[in-house]
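Run log, item B.
One chain of 151 residues. Sequence copied directly from the ordering sheet:
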Amino acid sequence: MSKSKKSGRQQAAVLEDLFAGEPDPQTILDKHNINQDTYARWLAAPHFAALFEQRVARAHHEARLILARYAPRAARKLIELTQSGKEEVARKACLDIIALPAPPDPGPAPDHRPARAPARSTGALPAELASRLLAALANPTQPNDAAPGTE
C-alpha cells in the first residue's frame, strides 16, 4: 500500500473518531499513533483542513436541527413551568422565556419566479429637489400646483 493511501486512511480514521464521540483529541491521536506534529501538519494541509471544516459544519448543522426539532417542546415546558406552584421555579421560567433570543428571520418564502436584480441607488438627490420634497412632506395640506422638479 502506498504511503499516501495509508496516510489518507489514517486521516479519515482520525477524523471519524474526532467526530464520533471521544471528547479528548489526544486520546484519539494516541489510539492512532499520531503525534502532535503530524496532526498539526495535517491541519495545515488544504485537503485535510477542508475535510475537517466540512465535518465541523455538518456537526453544527446537526446540532441546529436537533435544537429546532425540540424547541417547541422546550417552549411548551417553559410555559408550563411559569404556572408552577413553586415561586422560584416559575420566576426562573419567566426569566428564561424573557431571555430567549428571537429566532432568526427566515426571510421571504422562496417562490419559483426568477430573481429580480436589486434596485440600484441612483445617488443623492439634487439639493433643490430634496428641499422641495421635504417641504411637501412636512406640509401635506398645501395644494400641490406642480410636482417637484416639473416646472
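Observations after the first pass:
- The chain has six helices and no strands.
- The two ends are 86 Å apart (CA to CA).
Flagged for discussion on Thursday.
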